[in-house]
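Section 3.1: Structural characterization of target chains.
Under the original work plan, the team committed to producing a structural model for every single-chain target entering the pipeline before any wet-lab resources were allocated. The record below documents one such target. The sequence was received from the expression subgroup and is listed exactly as submitted; it comprises 301 residues.
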Amino acid sequence: MLSRILLVLASIAVVCIVYGVAIERRAYRLVRRGLAILPADGPETVTVLHLSDLHFVTDDPRKHAFLATIPRADVTVVTGDFLAEPEAVETAVAAVRETRGRLASWYVLGSNDYYASRAVNPLRYFVRTSRRKPRRRGRSDELRALLSADGWNDLTNRRDELDLGGLAVELLGLDDAHIRRQDLRVAPRRSPSRFGIAVMHSPDSAPEVAACGYPFVVAGHTHGGQVRLPLVGALVTNSHLPRRLVSGLIRMGGSFVHVSPGLGTSKYAPFRFLCPPEATLLELRRAPGGGEPARSGAQKQ
């Protein structure tokens, strides 16, 4: 009897693994979310396409084809980890070229853009450690150069002021907190009358940025947990934030933080379960009557 139970459990596990590798990790989807957060003196709407954790390999035609189907937004922002391997720089740049925003195209890098990914023991993600082994450097300089040539703006550890289709914006970009490259000295707001937008790879910097008064924050890095179980949720997040903050629109003080579950996986862990890859189209609208910001439900396609 016990042997039959173990055989059934093993069979279920095999089916789940095959499903996660062969089907779900390539089940790309576009999710639309609404957020009534804009000031009354700005435009009625601004659409923001949020992409993250693309993890391109050199030959990645299905992901490239999916990106080509996404409607053009006012702003496109990529919150890091374009690459799964340094050799894919040209592939990644060509794929995101078609997603650029009408008004602006922004990005920050993630650890996998700075360093070549490597195989690790999956159990390591369940144990927090401060030890970091040396990694082979990637092609981040070439990635930056090619993105800039295509019109993308690098927000790495920068604060800027700009006009976005009639919306006065104070814009913050932070480098990857996961590898301790963020410079929070640039985070404090200098023009609080402007609408604040913050961009980062790891959401670990989100609490500090929310405390600085940026009402709209975008981040990635967590992959939404990548593996989720019913009733349990994400098993790990690779973040210092609580697991319940693994993905989606999160209220953090007076700010809304959107953590993208991302579109890719490490090439050494090509598996997703109950956590499909996602690009998100966020429609920012005026807050009703100039009152409290509000969000609407997600629509998937």
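The two ends are 44 Å apart (CA to CA).
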